[in-house]
Amino acid sequence: MSASPSPLLCGLPPVIDARTRLVVLGSFPGVASLEAGQYYAHPRNQFWPLLSTIWGVDLRALPYAERLAAMNDHHLGLWDVYAHCRREGSLDRAIADAQLNDLASLRVRAPGLTAVAHNGGESARSRRVTEALGVDVVRLPSTSPANASWSFDRKLAAWRAVFEAHGLL
């Protein structure tokens, strides 16, 4: 008897508005994020600590809706490259049967878009699609706790440089 396939998982909606200039694209939410219905909900993920340090406000102390509002106020959008996939656990290497989000819609969702930043290698696999948008496309070091080869300070320098280059500071 073969094992049944994992269920098809559905990602989170985009956090993008007309003011968005930079969109950070993750790969697909991890288990903690899907359970919470919140981006980067794993307590060891460094996404919120990085933004908190860059902007000088402790976003982790705010309710989730206020974190998202602060992102919008700073012209930052957030989404994932995959709309659906099958995956056991949270590791990107376990993603199977992935279906891309409508990344081409980013230009309509964010008319002032100047850049897309891929949060890690799995997200950057869709770089061909994001480069077709005609904006700057960069790969940032993953904020995942699985990316232990980059220190927080090294990640911070890379993320800050992209935010500065696109007027998000």
Please give a structural write-up.
- There is one protein chain.
- The protein is of the alpha/beta class and 169 residues long.
- The chain has a single domain, classed as 3-Layer(aba) Sandwich (Uracil-DNA Glycosylase, subunit E).
- 31% of the residues lie in helices and 20% in strands.
- The chain has seven helices and seven strands.
- It has helices at 31-36, 47-55, 64-73, 106-109, 121-124, 127-131, 152-165; strands at 8-10, 22-26, 76-80, 82-86, 96-100, 115-119, 136-140.
- The strands form two sheets. A four-stranded parallel beta sheet has the order 3-2-6-7. A three-stranded antiparallel beta sheet has the order 1-4-5, with no helix packed on it.
Describe the structure using short key phrases.
three-stranded antiparallel β-sheet; globular; Hypoxan-DNA_Glyclase; 31% helix; 7 helices; Uracil-DNA_glycosylase-like; alpha/beta; Uracil-DNA Glycosylase, subunit E; four-stranded parallel β-sheet
